[in-house]
Structures are given as structure tokens and as C-alpha cells.
């Protein structure tokens, strides 16, 4: 019988797999592509990792890998270390440039940390309220599904841009 933890690990592992597919053989020009002046593939992948890193760290009660493991320094972006991409202008999103290797390594580190945390989840944990700033308050289950949905949506956008380029 599949446990909730295993189901969540499978869901989040699909994020890892989709990101790897988008990054497979990508060029610097493809990473920088932002059709119609919208978000680039690099920004979409960075944002995918940042959202997962920040939100999993919050519910797990640990520091984000972005700061704890020096990813902010390695990316050297002109934003505050707390930036995840949420609410950024197109001018700001255009400033996210990174190599495929750097993006892949950060995405993998985030996926590994998420997997470690998700392995500890019990069914009872899923009903825990993790954010009372919403009505109704947000449970851990709702937050995890929200993270995965956001990440998969952005990975789909990145894959679509890659497909347009080919």
C-alpha cells in the first residue's frame, strides 16, 4: 500500500524529472529566450527551485538552501536573498541569468532536500495548519499540493518555450 509520504515523494520527483528534461542539452541562448518579452527559461527554472526551496524550508522549519548552502552567492543575482521571483517585474526577471549546470545543481539540491523532508510526513501531519493568513487556514497538504502545482506549471511553460525554439 502506498503511503502519503511515498505519493508526495513521487509527485515532487516528477518536478525533478521535468526540470531535467527541460535542461537536457539546453543552450545559453535557449535559457535566455523570453518569447514576447515574457519570462525566460532560466527565470522559470530558477523560480521553480526558489519557490520549492523557500516553502519546503518554511514548513520543515529549516533554513533555505538558497542561503544556507551558498546558492545565493553562486547565482549572484541583483535581488535580496529572500526573493523567490514572486511578483517580480519583467525587468527583474530578465536579470536572472545562469548556466544550465548551475540551475540543474540547485534544482537537484532542492529536490533532494524536499525528498528528505517528504519522507518524514505522516497522514496526521497533512492536516496540520501551516498558514493562518488565509481563509480557510492552509494545511500542510494544501501547501504541498500548491508548491507542486506551481512548480509543474512553470516547468510546463519552460518546456513550451523550448519546444517553440526547436
Automatic annotation (TrEMBL):
UniProt xrefs under InterPro entries? DinB-like, DinB/YfiT-like
Q: Which Pfam families match?
A: DinB_2 (PF12867)
Domain DinB-like, chain residue ranges per copy: 12-158
List, alphabetically, the NCBIfam families matched: MST_Rv0443
Q: What is this protein called?
A: DinB family protein
Q: Which organism is it from?
A: Branchiibius cervicis
